[in-house]
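Data card: per-record layout.
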Amino acid sequence: MTSTDVKDAKPRAARPPRWSRIPLTLVVVAALLFLGSRLDLLPGFGNLFGEETHDRTGPTLLESIQDLDRYEAASGNFQVVVDLEKDAKYLPDAIRGTRTLYVGAGTVSSYVDFGGLGAGSVTTDEARTSATIRLPHARLGEAALDPDRSYAVSKQRGLLDRLGDLFSDNPADERAVNRLAARHISDAAKESELTERAEKNTTSMLKGLLRSLGFTEVTVVYG
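The structure for this 223-residue chain is written out next.
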């Protein structure tokens, strides 16, 4: 290289460091996140960046009132583990399909209906010391799931199902497993001794009530 080339050579401009190319917005966001985590350590600033919950629910409307002519005599608590899987034909589960493991907990009540009792349902003797009451057999109510004790253990969804959730108003809908859990709980209640317990408790209640009115012999017949 000649002396002329050395004179004509211009020094290269220094490149800015890589961190300076980061957009300013990202820097500000990172700083806020760092500051928020640090402020949690200082008294009085722990909830500076915390979230708040606002309940803007409107007034509750009473739609109807129904008179219940039945005696709730027994109630059972049930729990079931629902394993619900939905597959698509000719597609692997990783592409299309769902599988949900759900723990459903709920109650089923058993009652005796007094609404259909007529004048001949209760007979007494002339001295009004003995009475016979004829009642229908106890029945089972609908299964009522407890949201505080029911929860999803795991959810597996295919790629197409995940994409569909992005455009759904109610992603990961659990109504199917809720209905299935309620059905299994109802079936278990039918196999239990709830109705027998309800009739036994109803008999005890009626005997105690009529004996307090002066009856010494009380008979309750179901059928």
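Known properties of this structure: The longest strand covers residues 70-87. The chain has five helices and eight strands.

See the next section for split statistics.
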